[in-house]
Amino acid sequence: MSTVIAATAAGLRQRTEALETALRKLAVEHRPATFASSLGAEDMVLTDAIVRCGAAIEIFTLDTGRLNPETLSVLDLVRSRYGYEILAYRPNPSAVDEYVRNHGPDAIYESVELRSRCCEIRKVEPLKRALAGKRAWVTGMRRAQSVTRNSLPLEEFDRAYGLWKLNPLAEWSEHEVWDYIRAHRVPYNPLHDQGYRSIGCAPCTRPTAAGEDLRAGRWWWENPESKECGLHKRPTDAGSATATAQRKHA
What we know:
It is a single chain. The protein is an alpha/beta fold. It has a single domain (2-248), classed as 3-Layer(aba) Sandwich (Rossmann fold). The chain has helices at residues 2-29, 41-53, 69-82, 93-103, 112-131, 174-184, 235-248; strands at residues 33-37, 57-62, 87-89, 136-138, 155-158, 163-166. Helix 3 links the parallel strand 2 and strand 3. Helix 4 packs antiparallel against helix 5 (112-131). The radius of gyration is 18 Å and the shape is globular. The termini are far apart.
């Protein structure tokens, strides 16, 4: 058993060193850089690593107006632990009001189009403001999170936003994420202890049951191929969606 523990610790050290190296390199070569945190487990790993290694990377989150109180509490946890104030970008109030007036507060359940429009207002538009003037951004995405991310590269040029994009946890497993959190005593979203493995807005997130996919609790009423909010739309997404639709009607 001690051999297994030692191997796990050694593997985590290697992962951590590679992570910190990638973050420092990005901060130097693509300044100014920023990190988009959803305040979930992966993003707390990155928050800890950025602060720990002193990488000059800004950290922000998207306060959609529909986050769980537990998720918002992570801002206080970070402030208390690291003395760092995560920037919060919020949606345009008039756009939110117009959407609710025309479609109702829970129109997200009616169609993918209405759910996507809600994401556009509450997440994508604020993200564009957060990325304005930046040369690179960091995400906490992993390949194992969903079928929409299984070909995720470690780094890429994000043509949608016109800047460099680093996905330093792309090759990490969920176990490695939690090994890091435990090893470094990283504060995390209390919803993870209630069965939430992937966390978004409250109406769009539920706990996952045993045996379910990691992101099964996100937009659970939709087809897995459509489970993205538009923040990480890649040039191949439209083609993949078309191909999926064609297969269904074949």
